Amino acid sequence: VAASLPTFSALQFYLQVQHNTMSLFQSDYFTVSSKNGLSQFQTMIAYLGGSTFQTVLDNPVTAYRQLVQQYAKDAAGKAVDPTIATAEATAVFKANPAAAALSGLVPRIIGVGFKRIPKFGILLGLSF
Asked: In the chain, N or C terminus with fewer CB closer than 10 Å?
C-alpha cells in the first residue's frame, strides 16, 4: 500500500508561504530597536550606502584597469606591449578624466544591488 501524502491546493500553499514570510512594509521593519538603536530599514540603508560609496570610489581604478585590458590587443587580436596599452589608457583618462572615471559606474551600482541586497538581507536577518 502506497503511503498517501497530504495534498494542498495552490491557494493554501500560497497563503501558508505568505503567512510565514516577513513583508518589507511591516511596521517592525521601521521600528527602532532598543538593542542597537537602529531600525532594520536604517541598517539595510547603511549597508547598501557603504557598499555603494565603496563602488563609486573604486570605479576610477576599475575603469582604468578595464581600459588597459581593452587596449592590450590590437584590431587584429594580437597582444600589444603593456607599456603601449597603459599609455593609451592613460591618454583616455587625460583627455576626459571625469567621463573616464565614471565609465561603467551605473552597471556596477546595479550589480551592487543584485549582489548585496540578498547578502545584506541575510546579515540583517541574523542581527535582528
From this structure: N
Q: Considering the entire predicted model, what is its pTM?
A: 0.67
Phi-psi region of 63 (alpha: psi -120 to 50; beta: other; left: phi over 0): alpha
**Extended beta strands in 1-128, E state:** none
For 108-124, how does the pLDDT look when each residue is reduced to its tens digit (9 = 90+)?
Answer: 999 998 999 888 888 88
Cell numbers describing residue 78: 594580437
From residue 76, how far is each of 16, 72, 86, 93 by CA, in Å? 60, 11, 18, 24
CA 54 to chain centroid, in Å, comes to: 11
Cβ count within 10 A of residue 14? 11
Helix and strand counts by DSSP (H, E) for the chain: 6, 0
